[in-house]
Design brief:
CATH superfamily: P-loop containing nucleotide triphosphate hydrolases
Low-confidence stretches: none
Strand content: 25-35%
Helix content: 25-40%
Order of helices and strands: EEEHEEHEHHHEHEHEE
Largest sheet: 6 strands, mixed
Mean pLDDT: 94
Number of domains: 1
Radius of gyration: 18 Å
CATH topology: Rossmann fold
Number of helices: 7
Distance between the termini: 24 Å
CATH class: Alpha Beta
Amino acid sequence: MNIVETRNLAKYYTFDSGLRVEALRGINVNIEEGDFVSFMGPSGSGKSTLLNIVGCLDQPTSGNVFIEGREIDYRNSSNLVRLHRQTIGFIFQAFNLISTMNAMENVCYPLYFNRVPHSRQEKRATELLNLVGLGDRMHHLPSELSGGEQQRVAIARALANNPKLILADEPTGNLDSGTGKKVTDLMRKINREQGVSFLVTTHDHEMARTADRVIKLKDGKITD
Protein backbone atom coordinates (compact mmCIF):
# COMPACT_ATOMS: atom_id res chain seq x y z
CA MET A 1 0.00 0.00 0.00
CA ASN A 2 1.18 3.54 -0.73
CA ILE A 3 1.85 5.71 2.31
CA VAL A 4 2.17 8.74 -0.01
CA GLU A 5 0.92 9.41 -3.50
CA THR A 6 0.97 12.67 -5.45
CA ARG A 7 -0.89 13.24 -8.71
CA ASN A 8 0.13 16.01 -11.12
CA LEU A 9 1.22 18.18 -8.20
CA ALA A 10 2.06 21.80 -8.97
CA LYS A 11 3.04 24.82 -6.90
CA TYR A 12 3.28 28.34 -8.31
CA TYR A 13 4.18 31.61 -6.64
CA THR A 14 2.90 34.84 -8.22
CA PHE A 15 4.44 38.17 -7.23
CA ASP A 16 3.03 41.70 -7.41
CA SER A 17 5.28 42.39 -10.39
CA GLY A 18 3.43 39.70 -12.32
CA LEU A 19 6.36 37.29 -12.16
CA ARG A 20 5.31 33.65 -11.68
CA VAL A 21 7.73 31.09 -10.26
CA GLU A 22 6.94 27.43 -10.85
CA ALA A 23 8.31 25.62 -7.80
CA LEU A 24 6.76 22.26 -8.73
CA ARG A 25 5.45 21.08 -12.09
CA GLY A 26 3.49 17.87 -12.65
CA ILE A 27 4.94 15.82 -9.80
CA ASN A 28 3.75 12.20 -9.68
CA VAL A 29 5.24 10.17 -6.84
CA ASN A 30 4.29 6.88 -5.19
CA ILE A 31 5.92 5.92 -1.89
CA GLU A 32 5.15 2.52 -0.40
CA GLU A 33 4.79 1.83 3.30
CA GLY A 34 8.18 1.15 4.87
CA ASP A 35 10.17 2.88 2.11
CA PHE A 36 13.18 5.09 2.79
CA VAL A 37 13.24 7.59 -0.08
CA SER A 38 15.60 10.50 -0.68
CA PHE A 39 14.70 13.59 -2.71
CA MET A 40 17.84 15.07 -4.22
CA GLY A 41 18.45 18.16 -6.29
CA PRO A 42 20.18 21.55 -6.31
CA SER A 43 18.88 24.49 -4.29
CA GLY A 44 15.65 25.72 -5.86
CA SER A 45 14.80 22.35 -7.38
CA GLY A 46 11.57 22.08 -5.38
CA LYS A 47 12.46 19.25 -3.04
CA SER A 48 11.70 21.13 0.20
CA THR A 49 8.50 22.54 -1.31
CA LEU A 50 7.42 19.00 -2.17
CA LEU A 51 8.20 17.79 1.35
CA ASN A 52 6.26 20.69 2.91
CA ILE A 53 3.20 19.96 0.77
CA VAL A 54 3.27 16.25 1.59
CA GLY A 55 3.63 17.23 5.25
CA CYS A 56 0.66 19.61 5.01
CA LEU A 57 2.80 22.61 6.02
CA ASP A 58 2.00 24.17 2.65
CA GLN A 59 -0.67 23.48 0.04
CA PRO A 60 -0.38 22.90 -3.69
CA THR A 61 -1.62 25.24 -6.39
CA SER A 62 -3.09 22.24 -8.18
CA GLY A 63 -2.93 18.45 -8.08
CA ASN A 64 -3.65 15.97 -5.33
CA VAL A 65 -1.86 14.39 -2.36
CA PHE A 66 -2.93 11.13 -0.74
CA ILE A 67 -1.73 9.83 2.63
CA GLU A 68 -2.58 6.18 3.29
CA GLY A 69 -4.99 6.31 0.35
CA ARG A 70 -6.97 9.30 1.63
CA GLU A 71 -6.87 12.55 -0.30
CA ILE A 72 -5.68 15.54 1.72
CA ASP A 73 -8.16 18.39 2.00
CA TYR A 74 -5.92 21.36 2.77
CA ARG A 75 -8.97 23.45 3.74
CA ASN A 76 -9.83 21.07 6.61
CA SER A 77 -7.60 22.38 9.41
CA SER A 78 -8.81 19.87 12.01
CA ASN A 79 -7.87 16.99 9.71
CA LEU A 80 -4.43 18.51 9.10
CA VAL A 81 -3.87 18.81 12.86
CA ARG A 82 -4.89 15.17 13.27
CA LEU A 83 -2.39 14.09 10.61
CA HIS A 84 0.38 16.04 12.35
CA ARG A 85 -0.48 14.52 15.71
CA GLN A 86 -1.03 10.92 14.65
CA THR A 87 0.52 10.08 11.28
CA ILE A 88 3.39 12.41 10.35
CA GLY A 89 6.59 13.25 12.23
CA PHE A 90 9.09 15.96 11.25
CA ILE A 91 12.87 16.31 11.47
CA PHE A 92 14.39 19.66 10.51
CA GLN A 93 17.90 20.73 9.50
CA ALA A 94 18.03 23.30 12.31
CA PHE A 95 16.79 20.75 14.91
CA ASN A 96 14.02 23.15 16.10
CA LEU A 97 14.28 22.06 19.73
CA ILE A 98 12.80 24.33 22.38
CA SER A 99 15.82 25.92 24.04
CA THR A 100 14.28 26.21 27.52
CA MET A 101 13.26 22.54 27.63
CA ASN A 102 15.60 19.63 28.32
CA ALA A 103 15.79 16.59 26.04
CA MET A 104 13.03 14.71 27.83
CA GLU A 105 10.71 17.72 27.83
CA ASN A 106 11.30 18.27 24.10
CA VAL A 107 10.34 14.66 23.37
CA CYS A 108 7.30 14.90 25.66
CA TYR A 109 6.08 18.07 23.96
CA PRO A 110 4.09 16.46 21.09
CA LEU A 111 2.63 13.93 23.54
CA TYR A 112 1.24 16.77 25.62
CA PHE A 113 -0.84 17.95 22.67
CA ASN A 114 -2.24 14.44 22.27
CA ARG A 115 -3.32 14.62 25.93
CA VAL A 116 -1.14 11.69 26.95
CA PRO A 117 -0.92 11.47 30.78
CA HIS A 118 2.30 12.89 32.20
CA SER A 119 3.56 9.54 33.53
CA ARG A 120 3.13 7.95 30.10
CA GLN A 121 4.82 10.94 28.47
CA GLU A 122 7.94 10.43 30.56
CA LYS A 123 7.90 6.66 29.98
CA ARG A 124 7.67 7.09 26.22
CA ALA A 125 10.32 9.84 26.16
CA THR A 126 12.69 7.69 28.21
CA GLU A 127 12.21 4.74 25.83
CA LEU A 128 12.91 6.91 22.80
CA LEU A 129 15.93 8.70 24.25
CA ASN A 130 17.39 5.31 25.13
CA LEU A 131 16.64 4.16 21.57
CA VAL A 132 18.66 7.05 20.11
CA GLY A 133 21.49 6.56 22.61
CA LEU A 134 20.81 9.53 24.86
CA GLY A 135 19.54 7.85 28.01
CA ASP A 136 22.25 9.60 30.00
CA ARG A 137 21.54 13.05 28.49
CA MET A 138 17.79 13.34 28.90
CA HIS A 139 17.98 16.15 31.47
CA HIS A 140 20.35 18.30 29.40
CA LEU A 141 19.23 21.45 27.59
CA PRO A 142 19.85 21.73 23.83
CA SER A 143 22.69 24.19 24.51
CA GLU A 144 24.42 21.45 26.50
CA LEU A 145 24.24 18.95 23.63
CA SER A 146 26.31 18.60 20.47
CA GLY A 147 24.70 19.04 17.05
CA GLY A 148 24.48 15.30 16.56
CA GLU A 149 22.91 14.83 19.98
CA GLN A 150 20.38 17.57 19.27
CA GLN A 151 19.39 15.88 16.02
CA ARG A 152 18.97 12.57 17.84
CA VAL A 153 16.63 14.31 20.30
CA ALA A 154 14.74 15.66 17.27
CA ILE A 155 14.46 12.12 15.89
CA ALA A 156 13.13 10.88 19.23
CA ARG A 157 10.61 13.74 19.26
CA ALA A 158 9.50 12.88 15.72
CA LEU A 159 8.81 9.30 16.87
CA ALA A 160 6.90 10.27 20.01
CA ASN A 161 3.38 9.71 18.66
CA ASN A 162 4.26 6.53 16.72
CA PRO A 163 3.97 8.12 13.26
CA LYS A 164 3.81 6.00 10.14
CA LEU A 165 5.66 8.62 8.11
CA ILE A 166 8.63 10.83 8.97
CA LEU A 167 9.59 13.77 6.78
CA ALA A 168 13.18 14.95 7.20
CA ASP A 169 14.39 18.15 5.53
CA GLU A 170 18.20 18.10 5.17
CA PRO A 171 18.58 16.29 8.53
CA THR A 172 22.38 16.09 8.23
CA GLY A 173 22.86 19.55 6.68
CA ASN A 174 24.24 21.14 9.87
CA LEU A 175 26.40 18.17 10.87
CA ASP A 176 29.93 17.09 10.02
CA SER A 177 30.26 14.01 7.82
CA GLY A 178 30.99 11.57 10.64
CA THR A 179 28.08 12.75 12.78
CA GLY A 180 25.86 12.89 9.71
CA LYS A 181 26.59 9.23 8.97
CA LYS A 182 25.60 8.27 12.52
CA VAL A 183 22.31 10.15 12.18
CA THR A 184 21.68 8.53 8.78
CA ASP A 185 22.42 5.08 10.20
CA LEU A 186 20.05 5.73 13.11
CA MET A 187 17.17 6.77 10.83
CA ARG A 188 17.79 3.75 8.58
CA LYS A 189 17.79 1.46 11.63
CA ILE A 190 14.44 2.87 12.79
CA ASN A 191 13.06 2.50 9.28
CA ARG A 192 14.09 -1.16 9.03
CA GLU A 193 13.24 -2.27 12.54
CA GLN A 194 10.01 -0.32 13.07
CA GLY A 195 8.72 -0.03 9.52
CA VAL A 196 8.41 3.74 9.68
CA SER A 197 8.46 5.32 6.21
CA PHE A 198 11.00 8.10 5.65
CA LEU A 199 11.00 10.87 3.04
CA VAL A 200 14.25 12.80 3.19
CA THR A 201 15.54 15.81 1.29
CA THR A 202 19.30 15.83 1.14
CA HIS A 203 22.48 16.94 -0.62
CA ASP A 204 24.29 14.14 1.25
CA HIS A 205 25.34 11.41 -1.19
CA GLU A 206 26.09 9.07 1.73
CA MET A 207 22.45 9.28 2.82
CA ALA A 208 21.25 8.86 -0.74
CA ARG A 209 23.29 5.69 -1.11
CA THR A 210 21.51 4.12 1.87
CA ALA A 211 18.02 4.94 0.56
CA ASP A 212 15.74 2.40 -1.07
CA ARG A 213 15.13 4.91 -3.83
CA VAL A 214 16.42 8.32 -4.89
CA ILE A 215 14.07 10.76 -6.64
CA LYS A 216 15.94 13.57 -8.38
CA LEU A 217 14.39 16.98 -8.96
CA LYS A 218 15.49 19.91 -11.09
CA ASP A 219 13.59 23.11 -11.81
CA GLY A 220 10.47 21.76 -10.12
CA LYS A 221 10.33 18.54 -12.16
CA ILE A 222 11.38 14.94 -11.58
CA THR A 223 14.38 13.97 -13.71
CA ASP A 224 15.67 10.53 -14.63
